[in-house]
Design goal:
By secondary structure, this protein is mainly alpha-helical. The protein is built from 16 helices and four strands. The strands form two sheets. A two-stranded antiparallel sheet has the order 1-2. The two termini are 28 Å apart.
């Protein structure tokens, strides 16, 4: 009972309060959950750790330790608080050693809370659309600026104006789509469509495009008797909307795209021989022409990994990050595609080296264990 309560509160905190500014309980709940799982495991006479988990964590933490040492030695705008943030994010993976004993509870709770997140996005959209008033505006400002768990407003893409009810953990909803669409019942198909609508209402390019693409491919794979109709519908949608989407969503003059392009130029300048091989290390920063000042992180996640870890460590890290999806592909193609879809979304958002990214990795590894 206590385990379920703490695990539920921990997942809720991770999903609805990723910046840990609403409740301020994420770290405490993590430690408490870790302790409870530790006690349960060691109360058994036979203690069995999964060797693959140990090796996986050993490689990851060795990379982190080496990169921290490089950051301290190279001392390129080194900030210990930033380095600690990276270390804390990867510490979430330590749950792998213990969470196996209650993996089904973790997965079930995560999917339920992600479903609640989807409904919350849709409800907030409808409330703002129908009953917008000063109290709703105060809630919007609170979530957006004070606790930084969401961005709520409108987003302009060229001639397109789209609603933006973006919770920072909303890309994880793609796992809910995968879970429900696989069940092949009408009610679960409706739930998966609602989850897709939530991703679209988040208002980000990556969520909209990758979410729709993943749903389309999954529907095509699972609902074989509707394939011809699906091909016709999706082809019409692509013909009607793809040209406008490409023009409006990927315009080089769009503000977010301009920042990303400037950051790419910055990375090219940064990648001298030392940096390209060994990285600048965890905790390092660089002068951004896009931000006109010092920055320690950008939305271009995989460029960041190379900047921080270099090709030698960064390549190993990326391989170990994509490995759970590769192993899952043969036996569970839908969840495998969901994981890779998340990794694509995370490529243009700082959602990988974070508690959100670690949850995606843990969830996918646990799915692998179910099959084995």
């Amino acid at each position: 009972m206590i385990l379920k309560l703490v695990m539920n509160l921990f997942i809720i905190s991770c999903i609805f309060d990723p910046a840990d500014k609403i409740f301020g309980l994420k770290t405490l709940l993590y430690l408490l959950l870790f302790f409870i799982l530790f006690v349960i495991l060691f109360s058994n006479k036979t203690i069995i750790f999964d060797k693959s988990d140990i090796y996986y964590l050993l490689v990851i933490y060795t990379i982190i330790a080496i990169s921290y040492f490089i950051g301290k030695v190279r001392n390129i705008n080194f900030n210990n608080n930033i380095a600690y943030g990276y270390l804390k994010s990867f510490l979430f993976l330590g749950l792998l050693l213990f969470i196996n004993i209650e993996s089904n509870i973790f997965k079930k709770m995560l999917l339920n809370i992600l479903m609640i997140l989807s409904y919350s996005i849709i409800i907030i959209f409808l409330i703002k659309l129908l009953f917008n008033n000063e109290y709703i505006e105060k809630l919007t400002l609170y979530l957006t600026f004070e606790v930084e768990s969401a961005k709520i407003g409108i987003r302009q893409y060229g001639s397109y104006t789209v609603p933006m009810i973006y919770f920072k953990t909303s890309p994880l909803i793609i796992f809910s789509i995968a879970h429900f669409i696989k069940k092949q019942t009408n009610i679960n198909l409706i739930i998966s469509i609602l989850c897709l609508i939530a991703m679209i209402l988040s208002g980000t390019r990556a969520n909209i495009i990758i979410g729709f693409a993943f749903f389309s491919v999954s529907f095509f794979i699972i609902y074989k008797k509707y394939r011809k109709a699906a091909i016709i519908i999706f082809t019409l949608i692509i013909i009607l909307f793809l040209p406008k989407i490409l023009i409006n969503f990927f315009s080089v003059s769009e503000y977010s795209n301009t920042i990303k392009i400037n950051h790419i130029y910055d990375y090219i300048k940064l990648f001298d021989t030392k940096t390209i091989l060994f990285g600048q290390g965890i905790g390092s920063g660089f002068m951004s022409t896009a931000f006109h000042g010092l920055t320690y992180n950008t939305e271009l996640t995989y460029f960041e990994i190379i900047r921080i870890f270099g090709l030698l460590l960064g390549t190993i890290l990326i391989i170990f990050i994509i490995l759970p999806g590769i192993l899952l592909y043969k036996n569970d193609i839908i969840n495998s595609l969901a994981y890779f879809s998340y990794l694509i979304i995370a490529g243009t958002n700082p959602l990988l080296i974070s508690s959100t990214g670690m949850i995606a990795i843990i969830y996918t590894i646990l799915l692998n264990k179910d099959i084995m």
